[in-house]
Amino acid sequence: MSERQLPADLDIESLAIRAGELRTEQMTHSEPLFLTSSFVYENAAQAAARFAGEEPGNVYSRFTNPTVRIFEQRLAALEGGERCVAFASGMAAITATFFALLKPGDHVVSSRSLFGTTNVIFDRYLKKFGVLSTLVDLADLDAWRAAIRPETRFLYLETPSNPLAEVGDIAALAALAHEHGAELIVDNCLCTPALQRPLALGADYVIHSATKYLDGQGRCLGGAVVGRDQPLEEIFAFLRSTGATLSPFNAWVFLKGLETLPLRMKAHSDNALALAQWAAAQAGVARVHYAGLDDHPQHALAAAQQSGYGPVLSLELVDADGNADRQAAWRFIDAMQLLSITANLGDVKTTITHPASTTHGRVAAEEKQRAGITENLVRIAVGLESLADLKADLQRGLQALGHR
Ligand SMILES: *Cc1c(COP(=O)(O)O)cnc(C)c1O
Q1: Any transmembrane segments, and where (predicted)?
Q2: Is the pLDDT of residue 404 over 90?
């Protein structure tokens, strides 16, 4: 079995299909699925050499698996990183990065607009082991600078944020981190390398929930970290012993997802931009949050940093009597006939949710207000159905609010 040598400097569309390709003895064309927990040896001496690390090769799928390796090679190529380590979920990737690289007394500055469970890791687990974090507004560079301490080890962010589509300046934050001997971690789940490549902008690590757009069709959980060889070896050592390993089956599904990633992300983005522009002109939509719109405060930054504005937008709704409340949001959502009511995203199916009572339901009222998660806000993760059909569904929502 051998890795196929590819021409240098392939475009992202080609890497998404070809990077990491293996030629098996059977000369399979589709990526082989090695659904095996362990591997066998020719003889006892070979087993001893493999265990001692004196001979390269697979031992046990908690450590390495050839199908998982193809996925890691391909994602590393797409993100432009030296190495990728895959995990059983996005949260496993995030947790392993922190626990492998931080020590008690270290400090992390993070954007406050985060995937909710990432906040739990900061609040409950890192704190318990003596790592403190400070939360700042994603787009406020001065706040990031002011929060840095001598013991700050990482700056951490997601951009664009979910659900309000704020945009953080990756190049500026990478420079700021490096100026202070810290490193920058970017969760690139919403844009994927098809629309945004944080490592090329100076970030040190990219984290993924592969569960979302890398799969793209809502089937499997997985995660990954991409970055330089040496720290990734430490993250891999943590994974080998703690065991949140990606299943080879899930890796195989993600490989099929990656093949169409550039095409899908462009189509998600195009649909989202058109829907955002349409929504902005409707009575009943008080405000649209989407970085592709000219009036978005970080529109220019998003245009420079991303090659598309991404799949997620949110709308602030108001009914025909002028009520901009939870009732309005829920009536709008309940009128959907096509969109799926679910908090998940990263699917070809368009989804709609009410953040204030779902993803942010347990956040204190004050903090919700501060973060802009208003009661009349709905988040839409735009899928790949026809634009006309999506507009018609949102139109049904507006009619339910008494608009024509
Ligand atoms: C879903 C998500 C995660 C967590 O990923 P899981 O695969 O669910 O563990 C992390 N970050 C972002 C931005 C996400 O959307």
Answers
A1: none
A2: no
Domain that holds residue 148: 10-259
Per-residue pLDDT tens over the stretch 236-292 = 999 999 999 999 999 999 999 999 999 999 999 999 999 999 999 999 999 999 999
Q: Look at residues 259, 274, 302 and tell me which one is the last residue of a structural domain.
A: 259
Residue 223 near residue 210 (C-beta atoms within 8 A) = yes
- Average pLDDT of the chain, as a whole number: 97
pTM value surpassing 0.85: yes
The amino acid that residue 230 corresponds to is Q
CA of 160 to the centre of ligand 1 (A): 14
Q: Is residue 4 part of a domain?
A: no
| Phi and psi at residue 201, to the nearest 5° | -90, 0
* Residues within 6 Å of ligand 1 by CB: 89-91, 115, 158, 187, 189, 209, 211-212, 221, 223
Q: Shortest CA distance to 169 belongs to which of 70, 347, 304, 364?
A: 304
Q: Whose CA is nearest to atom 8 of ligand 1?
A: 90
Radius of gyration of the chain (CA): 22
Ligand 1 mutation target, pool 212, 220, 221, 359, most atoms within 8 A of CB: 212
| Distance (Å) from CA 121 to ligand 1 centroid | 12
Q: What is the pLDDT of residue 371?
A: 86
Inside any domain, residue 311:
yes
How do residues 370-395 score in pLDDT, each as one tens digit?
A: 889 999 999 999 999 999 999 999 99
Asked, for residue 352, whether it belongs to a domain, the answer is yes
Tell which residue, 349, 367, 351, has the closest CA to residue 116: 367
- How, if at all, do strands 107-111 and 152-158 pair? parallel
**Total of domains in the chain:** 2
Q: Is 217 in the same domain as 323?
A: no
> Which protein residue has the closest C-alpha to ligand 1 atom 5?
90
The per-residue pLDDT for 167 is: 98
Which amino acid is located at 361 in the chain?
Answer: G
- 79 CA to centre of ligand 1 in angstroms: 18
What is the 246 CA–ligand 1 centroid distance (Å)? 15
Instruction: Specify if 2 maps to a domain.
Output: no
213 shares its domain with 326: no
